[in-house]
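Quick one: structure for this chain?
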Amino acid sequence: MHTTTTHYITLHANAARGEIVVNEANFVKKCISTESCQDDLWGKLVCTNFKVSFITHNSLPRQKFQCTHRLLGEHDIPLACVEQVVTVNDIKGKQKILGSNQKLKFNPTELILYCKDFRIIRFRFDEAGPESAKKVCLAIAHYSHPADPQLLFGFEYVGKRYHGSTGETMNGVDPGGGLQTPLFDCSSDWDREIKRTGASEWRVCTINQGYFISPSLPEFFVVPVSLADQDLKQYACCFYSQRIPLWCWNHSSGSALVRMSNISDPLQQRKVEQRISSAIIKSHPLRSDVFKSDLDKNLPNIQDIQAALLKLRQICVIEPFEESEEKWLSSLESSRWMEYVRTFLRHAVDVVYMLESRHVSVILLEKEDRDLSCVISCLVQLMCDPHCRSLHGFQGLIQKEWVMAGHRFLDRCNHLKKNDKEESPLFLLFLDCVWQLWNQYPAAFEFTEVYLTVLGDSMWVPVFSTFLFNCPRQRAEHSRDFASSKSIHLGQDQALRFPPVWDWSQQFSLKDQTLFNNPLYVGKIATCVQNGTVKTFTHRRSKKNYSSTLRGVPSALRNGSLGPNDTLTRRNSLILRLRSDLSQMREQQETPSERFIRDWFSRPVDLQGLLLPQLLPSHLSVWKLYFLRWVPEAQIPQGGPITAFHKLSVLTDEIEMLQNQLRQYKGAGCTPKNQHMEHSKMYFKVTLTPHQCPAPPEYLSSSFPFSPVGNLCRPGITGTPLSKFLSGAKIWLSTETLANETI
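Got it. Here's what it folds into:
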């Protein structure tokens, strides 16, 4: 493929370190609305080795706010986020999906980018030169299909950080500098986790240092004290990929959560299973039995999950909304995405029952222990352990159970676009499950749904070690090879230091990061004012835990106001309203697990204790902020959960300011008002004018902090050359579909 000579990007402030332009086209139009062209933007379409960028001096209509990304501008799309590159010539009636190193025999008049984050972006080349239009389309297709992991932009981004402006070698990114999130890449992180959970009969194992035993396991992990290193080395060859069973977490009763791959040697299966089970039993103070949960038999496989996402994307992005909500919900149900979310949550609840009620240890069995077990182990810990519902606890949980445990992010995200059969949105499914829990118990989580949405988007910004590799060993090998090929002297480092996604300063300012802070969060330690004195108290499990009797924010309040008949829902009143649903469940014979769940729901919830989700289909919702944020028809101006978030943030900020003033009155010293505004944990702050309640900003909408402006509006495409083209897409555009379509 012929491209223009590459040069270092100097186009705008969002250029990342190591980013270069590979091709560009002038006089390109970005389609903002298909109803009329008056809102369309004119500018330059640029392809770099990192992203597709549209440079314009115009501003978007109605676009008064956007969270500023330090690596991406408002019109930028990371190349890893590009799902399909579709070129169209509406004059000749031709279209083609472009891959890497493909030829384009016609001059495109239109370019459509289908993105993995559910965006559809459309450009037109009516005024652009035909050759420059063709070249920029080919460049985007080529660079969005890298042939090797080392061609992913993260390597250039990190490699440049090892060289100062004078050419002298300097240290790379310090993944631990200033971070409170444990990365579990050293034995001390595991030691702290053992002590935190009280797992006194478990120890850190170091036999895989240098990845000597298993290529996909971390160098450090936790095993029962009663299992000697020599035994583990002997048993390793019996497991798939030599993946020795991994300890995940300990319940306060002493029950352990363990994940394990299948035993590949049938002759040794019974002997090895008995030895492993015996060691886990010995680690329990009551010597309780071990329950094995076969995830492959009870949960959908990765291909089923991928098919469900493709159907969901078709419903949310391509197909027009039905006239009736019932038809749309029926289509949503047929995708099976919500069914799979419910299935994973239900299975996690079953595991919680074994740990919490039966007081037995649980082994999560999966053939290779790298996919389904990541989801279930995390959900179980989120339900049982309030530490995992804090921001740093949640990030450490993902680091431990996904990154270090060897989830194939490179393959499952399909960053190289080599094998569609290996692609599966398991991490997105997990985030959706977390959101369902968050949606039912928002005050139990330190973070917001904006945080969960941004975390999902970060998979497509390929500069972070978190989502770039299949396992720690792959990261080490590729980074060493890249450093050698680029003559980068690593010094004492054994490999390039990629930043983890948890270093949010790489992407957002401190102000924008406050969007992650949940004003409803009820943490372990909170402050209150009693008789004019600021006191600190700790939430404890108690029958009289008044602060935790709130299930969450009523639906009316989530839309910004309380109706005349609405009150803050108490747990027992909610049970009464759901009695008809529960009675239907009781018509069948109740199992011990169901009785455990019913008994739990009959008691007031402790936000710092066990949390169980409600699992009837009516209790689960579509994660609108993620799946529908780019759809203009789904946007609610001045509405949605953000309006309640705004009011609660202002209230929380005002309480913090008043407490600060009270400390000043008591002579304890305080922060001046202007400094309080700078250091507040809330994005929306109280005004400095006394007794003035700030009105919600005009830019607030249900899509905040994202904007659907500039994405394809489906109802408006009727009658355009694109309408017939899109009507042939059954699930997601395929080569076969396009080959049979004519304009």
